[in-house]
Amino acid sequence: MTDARPSAAASAPELDVNGPDFAALLAARLCHDFISPASAIVSGLDLLEDPSAQDMREDAMSLIASSARKLADLLQFTRVAFGASASAENFDSRELEKLAQGVFAHVRPTMVWDIPPSVLNKASARAILNIAQIAASALPAGGTATLKAVVADGRMAITADSVGARARLRPEVLAGLKGEALSEGLGGPWVQAAYLHALVRAAGGQVAVSLGDDQVSLAAWVPA
Question: Of 10, 189, 215, 219, whose CB count within 10 A is highest?
Answer without folding.
Answer: 189
